[in-house]
Amino acid sequence: MGAHQEEARLFQIRIHGRGGQGVVTAAEMLSVAAFLEGRHAQAFPSFGSERTGAPVVAYCRLDDREIRLREPINEPDAIIIQDPTLLNQVDVFGGLVPGGYILINTTRTFEALGLADFVKGFPPDRLHTVPATEIAMKRIGRPLPNAALLGAFAAATGLISLESVGKAIREKFPVKIAEANILAAADSFKHVRREAGATENAQAD
Fold it and tell me: Using one digit for the tens of pLDDT, what is the confidence trace for 103-127?
C-alpha cells in the first residue's frame, strides 16, 4: 500500500463503453483485483441495454471497509471511457470529482479530442489516453479494450497492482484468452508509465 495508505477511503469508478466491449466484465475484474489485495469491492452494471453498440455504464467501488452503498455512482473519482465516440453522445464526465482520473481508449490527445479546456484544472498525471483497442487487436486479435484499460488504470492510480489485474483476468477467462488479455494489460500499464515519465520530464524542463 505504501503511499496510498492515507488514501484508504471509498474510491468510485465509472466505466463507459458500448455493448459488446466488456464494460461490465471490466468492472467485475477490477473488483476481483481489489478483493485479491484484501480490499472490499463492489461492481454492478447500470440497467440499460446490453445490445451490441448501445451505450453501457458499469460501476465499481473500492474501500478498505465494508461497502454499504448500493446506488449508481454519480460522483466518480475515476472515469474509464472504453469508446471515445461516446464523448459526443453521453455526459461521460458528469459528476467527476475535481482532479479525478480520466482514462480514455484513444490514440488521440485530450487536445485533439476537444477536451483541452475541460481538463485545464486537472493534474496532468490524472489524465491518460491509451490506444487500448490497438493493443487488444495486437494481443488478442479482437477489439476488446477492457483488460488493456485495467492495466492502464493500475498504472495511473496505483490503487491495484498489475499482478492482481492479471490474477483477476485469469479467474474470468480460459487460459489462452486470459494470457493474451494479460499481455494487453501489461502493454497498457507500460504505456501509461511511459506517458507519466514524459509528463514529469516536460514539467521539469
Answer: 999 999 999 999 999 999 999 999 9
